[in-house]
């Protein structure tokens, strides 16, 4: 397998546009910065809040509700791996000062190059046995997801890419521009490095990405291990010829 994204197992690029209440207003001057190790806990909290309502997450993390602490610990470990890896970087939007979180939204980017050979599976990483996850499903899903990513992203948009593995905003802070700001930042980096900026979106997020200048390259469908369910995704890339940022 030429490239793979083990992050796909626990954090898939998405913008959760589910109905939310009690939204809080972020400062109009959103503070974007690189994440540090101290943010890992809150990034995991943001991801779980944003993604756990989605069906693919419930399918993979079949036992998350039985072992919520283990779930948080494993997601956090994935974030720490992303913070440590030389080919990925993590950016955050700070939460308002009166929040009990430091982070309102986060994005994890992978800078591919020809020698990038993917991440290890999170369940084999030290310190996490993934009791929250159905490993049979996860392996099957990773295999199918990687094959689709290879075919419709890497073979089309080049071995050098800036790939958005994850974009999540805490439900309390959605729809205030945090996701767009994180995305804008990636587009700037892609432009500077002259690489395509790519992602694989949840259906709920398509409109958001189109609004931000991405076009749909392919719709893919990943079937469940028992073939009784399927998960649709939209493979997207930023359109650099549409007139810039
Ligand atoms: C953030 O990280 C990128 C590399 O991932 C680096 O180029 C940039 O200088 C960092 N920004 C700050 C403010 O540290
Ligand atoms: C943080 O605040 C939210 C309400 O905004 C609350 O639901 C949550 O339990 C709080 N978390 C902690 C760790 O205090
Ligand atoms: C390609 O990425 C790997 C890490 O995945 C890094 O070690 C290597 O230096 C990169 N090569 C180039 C030419 O950027
Ligand atoms: C794990 O997933 C597989 C495939 O969906 C399923 O057949 C199996 O029953 C699941 N394991 C448990 C313990 O539920
Ligand atoms: C971006 O992707 C297009 C295919 O849509 C490809 O022709 C082009 O070479 C890629 N750009 C770079 C900088 O790799
Ligand atoms: C993928 O599906 C969306 C509708 O959800 C559609 O707007 C888009 O054009 C499709 N993409 C392709 C490449 O057909
Ligand atoms: C990119 O944008 C240009 C200008 O708006 C448009 O002509 C072109 O069809 C777009 N490309 C894709 C692949 O959507």
Low-confidence stretches: 1-24, 119-124
Bound molecules: 2-acetamido-2-deoxy-beta-D-glucopyranose
What's the CATH first level? Alpha Beta
CATH superfamily: Gcn5-related N-acetyltransferase (GNAT)
Name the shape in a single word. globular
| Total tally of structural domains | 1
Keywords: Signal
Organism: Polyplosphaeria fusca
Protein name: N-acetyltransferase domain-containing protein
GO molecular function: acyltransferase activity, transferring groups other than amino-acyl groups
Report a brief summary of the structure.
The protein has 245 residues and is an alpha+beta fold. The chain has helices at 40-51, 55-60, 68-84, 135-157, 178-193, 206-211, and strands at residues 32-34, 88-94, 103-111, 161-169, 196-201, 214-223, 230-238.
Structure description:
The protein has 245 residues and is of the alpha+beta class. It has one domain (6-242): Gcn5-related N-acetyltransferase (GNAT) (Aminopeptidase), CATH 3.40.630.30. The protein has helices at 40-51, 55-60, 68-84, 135-157, 178-193, 206-211, and strands at 32-34, 88-94, 103-111, 161-169, 196-201, 214-223, 230-238. It has a seven-stranded mixed sheet, with helices on both faces. Strand 2 (88-94) and strand 3 (103-111) form a beta hairpin. The protein is globular and about 50 Å long. It binds 2-acetamido-2-deoxy-beta-D-glucopyranose (NAG) (7 copies). One 2-acetamido-2-deoxy-beta-D-glucopyranose binds next to helix 4. This is N-acetyltransferase domain-containing protein.
């Amino acid at each position: 397998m030429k490239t793979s994204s083990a992050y796909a197992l626990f954090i898939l690029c998405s913008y959760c546009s589910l109905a939310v209440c009690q939204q809080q207003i972020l400062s109009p001057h959103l503070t974007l910065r690189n994440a540090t190790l101290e943010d890992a806990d809150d990034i995991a909290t943001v991801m779980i809040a944003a993604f756990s309502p989605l069906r693919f997450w419930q399918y993979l993390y079949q036992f998350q509700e039985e072992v919520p602490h283990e779930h948080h610990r494993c997601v956090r470990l994935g974030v720490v791996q992303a913070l440590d890896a030389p080919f990925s970087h993590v950016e955050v939007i700070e939460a308002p000062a009166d929040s009990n979180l430091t982070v309102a939204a986060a994005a994890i980017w992978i800078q591919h190059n020809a020698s990038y050979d993917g991440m290890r599976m999170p369940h084999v990483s030290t310190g996490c046995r993934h009791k929250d996850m159905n490993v049979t499903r996860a392996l099957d899903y990773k295999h199918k997801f990687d094959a689709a990513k290879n075919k419709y992203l890497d073979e089309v948009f080049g071995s050098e890419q800036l790939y958005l593995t994850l974009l999540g905003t805490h439900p309390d802070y959605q729809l205030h521009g945090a996701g767009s700001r994180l995305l804008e930042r990636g587009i700037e980096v892609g432009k500077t490095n002259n690489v395509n900026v790519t992602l694989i979106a949840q259906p709920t997020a398509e409109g958001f990405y189109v609004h931000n200048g991405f076009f749909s390259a392919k719709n893919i469908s990943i079937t469940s291990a028992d073939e009784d369910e399927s998960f649709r995704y939209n493979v997207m890339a930023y359109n650099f010829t549409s007139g810039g940022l």
